[in-house]
Specification:
The protein is α/β, with parallel strands linked by helices. It has twelve helices and 18 strands. It folds into two domains: about 180 residues, NAD(P)-binding Rossmann-like Domain (Rossmann fold, 3-Layer(aba) Sandwich); about 240 residues, 3-Layer(aba) Sandwich (Rossmann fold), CATH 3.40.50. It has an eight-stranded mixed β-sheet with strand order 3-2-1-4-5-6-17-18. An eight-stranded mixed β-sheet has the order 8-9-7-12-13-16-14-15. A two-stranded antiparallel sheet has the order 10-11. Helix 1 runs parallel beside helix 11 and helix 4 packs across helix 6. The longest helix has 22 residues.
Length: about 425
């Protein structure tokens, strides 16, 4: 067994305080499996250097004694060491252009790469993830945005007291305050100018579940997509209407005689066309919580949004919480990602321009790309709880074995190995075309 693992400090930006393994779990790994830990010092990490030292970790700059290095986000090119194994979110499986130099560097050095994003079960469900916390923080930030947006229109709402996630003490503090806001909505109601308030969610995975967890603190009535229009006949101002859109609500077969088939859509998206636009005029807030890649249709195009905002009546759509935050992705006008200190911009579809902040003509977009870092302690604890269960087998693997097929690892981990000794593994050969 490899006896020493390394934990790299996060330095992608000043907001990234998360850790892959928390102090308590590295103590357990040492006691139960004899695995020692070296931690790089960090002035911003949510768990301090001293907390790691108390749990038996060695805090030092060099991670050279460790053969496996764990991190959260991408690692700078100069930090890679020859032949070492790295475990982190590489953001390379879609051939992301900005991370191809990093992948090339790892290949040149003969590194092995295990990506958390590809640690999945037999059904393809992710096992090690921050998704719920992206949803939690993203929903809070979107509700803050909604409050600020209405305030600029001289409409005061209970949402106006909501803060950004980073300005709360923790998740408990958030939920406590939102319960107060929810009680105000239930007793006093919302202004008629924003009623009915309908918030739509695309997707039903971990991100969507987290976002809905926050919204469900309020008085919420869930409706089906087919019932959206009827809500306007007799709406209540004392509830928020929630609607969750699944794949069958987003697209339909191009062949009129065919029924929607989920697996066919995944495998042959070209056989389907977008129908989601029919719901957009009725939504005040759209929460984008889906995994998207280029072969699938966009949820919201610039062309459609321009048509929507060209009509005489003011569109209901105020805010888009683009938690997925794919640049020019499912939301075509997500022109950039944002950060916790500058979380939103306004997209004007008539001029095809963006403006910082939440004031101006158009729709406000919240597109913070590392939302879980806004809840660093809770998200790290949850992540580490699962990851630590895989660590002993990762540390026990022989990454010097001559043949990739001979490396003994759980299927969940082996399938997440993008590089082995500097070469793309069979499942990831397609990345060659992006290199």
């Amino acid at each position: 067994m490899t006896t020493t693992l390394g934990i790299r400090r996060e330095d992608k930006n000043r907001w990234e305080q998360r850790v892959p393994l928390i102090p308590k779990h590295i103590q357990n790994l040492n006691k139960e499996h004899g695995i020692k830990t070296i931690v790089q010092p960090s002035p911003i990490r949510v768990f301090s250097d001293s907390e790691y030292k108390k749990m038996g970790a060695q805090v030092q700059e060099s991670l050279s004694p460790s053969s496996v290095v764990f991190a959260v986000k991408e690692i700078p090119l100069p930090s890679f060491e020859k032949g070492k194994t790295y475990v982190f979110f590489s953001h390379t499986i879609k051939g992301q252009h900005h991370n191809m130099p990093m992948l090339k560097k790892m290949m040149q050095l003969g590194c092995t790469l295990i990506d958390y994003e590809r640690i999945v079960d037999a059904n393809g469900r992710r096992l090690v993830f921050f998704g719920r916390y992206a949803g939690l923080a993203g929903m809070v930030d979107t509700l803050w945005t909604l409050g600020r947006r209405f305030h600029t229109e001289q409409i005061d709402t209970p949402f106006n007291t909501i803060k950004q996630t980073i300005h709360y003490k923790d998740l408990t503090d958030i939920k406590k305050h939102l319960a107060v806001v929810g009680k105000e909505i239930k007793t006093k109601g919302l202004p008629s100018s924003m009623t009915p308030l309908i918030i739509g969610f695309t997707g039903y995975g971990h991100v969507s579940v987290g976002a809905q967890e926050i919204l469900d603190i309020f008085p919420v009535k869930e409706i089906q997509p087919k019932d959206i229009v009827s809500i306007f006949q007799n709406p209540s101002n004392k509830v928020i209407y929630k609607v969750v859109f699944k794949e069958e609500h987003l697209v339909e077969p191009t062949n009129p005689g065919k029924k929607f088939d989920l697996q066919e859509y995944y495998q042959h998206p070209e056989r389907y066309r977008l129908t989601f636009e029919q719901y957009i005029p009725y939504l005040s807030v759209l929460m984008n919580c889906i995994f998207w890649s280029a072969q699938y249709p966009r949820l919201l195009t610039k062309q459609y949004t321009k048509r929507l905002f060209s009509k005489k009546e003011t569109p209901r759509l105020k805010v888009i919480g683009d938690i997925s935050a794919d640049i020019n992705g499912a939301i075509e006008f997500t022109e950039k990602t944002t950060s916790p200190d500058n979380p939103v911009f306004v997209y004007n579809p008539l001029t095809d321009t963006i403006k910082e902040g939440y004031e101006g003509d158009g729709v406000v977009v919240m597109a913070v790309d590392n939302l879980p870092c806004e809840l660093p302690k809770e998200s790290s604890e949850s992540f580490s709880e699962v990851l630590s269960q895989f660590v002993p087998e990762i540390m026990d693997a022989d990454f010097k074995a001559q043949d990739f097929e001979k490396v003994k690892l759980p299927a969940e981990i082996k399938n997440a190995m993008i590089l082995y000794q500097g070469k793309l593994t069979p499942a990831y050969q397609y990345i060659n075309k992006y290199l």
